[in-house]
């Protein structure tokens, strides 16, 4: 007779899962000077890791502009190269109206394949190489690709177990997911989002600023990290140039934050 598993309170189950996921989020990417990790970027990296490990054909990264979709995925691709050095990798920045020929040539370039004039010959060569060693490739600005380019990626993913990470704007994501043959191959969806006020206020990058000034930074940026980084850089520049007058982070007032913000176009918050 099979032994019955011990009873666990459903609330305890929820906490166990939440704690495990929280630990998973924190161990994929390292903090670097040009990359500020947030809860959202940790979730993105963890989900992309799952996509690579499970050999999903597609992973979709979407969300508002300025919320670290591209920079997080770029750092994740570096992580892939370190963790799975035997895999082919590629970073592709889609140009406007990124036709299948251009896409295939970019893949070939990353594989050090000599380009040929005939599309099918090049497709065959890329397919052969990926069949021997699968690829993890990122396509940034995927909304610039026509439907036919997605067909090329779908074919290569199906045939070679390669994983293609698609970064796109939040308004284009529903369009991709309306294509049922593409949607059915998307193993994970990772959504970038602005940082919450609670998380932003406690970030080390804002250390030393008065709490009211940190709250104003959130109000002005809406937690959009691109705007936060730009504003903090301007604040530190202002402090550095006026340090001899006693200016410091500790003395940087709300009014001073607002004054510095006027130099920037902060799209995420209110000015």
Automatic annotation (TrEMBL):
GO terms for molecular function: ATP hydrolysis activity. It comes from the Bacteria. InterPro entries: AAA_22, ExeA_AAA_ATPase_DNA-bind, P-loop_NTPase. Coiled coil: none annotated. SUPFAM superfamilies: P-loop containing nucleoside triphosphate hydrolases. Gene3D superfamilies: P-loop containing nucleotide triphosphate hydrolases (3.40.50.300). Residues 58-173 form the ORC1/DEAH AAA+ ATPase domain. Pfam families: AAA_22 (PF13401). This is ORC1/DEAH AAA+ ATPase domain-containing protein. It comes from Meiothermus hypogaeus NBRC 106114.
């Amino acid at each position: 007779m099979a032994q019955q598993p011990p009873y666990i309170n459903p609330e305890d189950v929820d906490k166990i899962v939440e704690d495990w996921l929280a630990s998973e989020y924190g161990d994929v990417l390292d903090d670097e000077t040009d990359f500020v990790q947030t809860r959202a970027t940790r979730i993105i990296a963890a989900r992309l890791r799952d996509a690579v490990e499970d050999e999903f054909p597609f992973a979709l990264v979407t969300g508002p502009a300025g919320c670290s979709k591209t920079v997080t995925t770029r750092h994740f691709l570096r992580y892939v190269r370190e963790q799975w050095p035997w895999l082919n990798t590629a970073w592709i920045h889609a140009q406007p109206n990124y036709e299948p020929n251009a896409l295939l040539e970019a893949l070939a370039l990353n594989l050090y394949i000599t380009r040929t004039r005939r599309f099918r010959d090049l497709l065959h060569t890329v397919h052969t190489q990926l069949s021997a060693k699968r690829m993890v490739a990122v396509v940034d600005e995927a909304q610039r690709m026509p439907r036919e380019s997605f067909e090329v990626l779908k074919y290569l993913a199906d045939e070679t177990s390669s994983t293609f990470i698609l970064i796109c704007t939040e308004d284009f994501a529903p369009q991709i997911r309306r294509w049922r043959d593409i949607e059915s191959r998307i193993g994970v969806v990772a959504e970038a989002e602005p940082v919450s006020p609670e998380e932003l206020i406690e970030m080390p990058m804002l250390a030393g600023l008065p709490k009211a000034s940190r709250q104003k930074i959130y109000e002005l940026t809406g937690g959009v990290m691109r705007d936060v980084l730009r504003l903090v850089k301007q604040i530190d520049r202002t402090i550095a140039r006026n340090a001899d007058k006693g200016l410091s982070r500790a003395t940087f007032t709300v009014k001073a934050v607002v004054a510095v913000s006027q130099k920037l176009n902060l799209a995420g918050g209110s000015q």
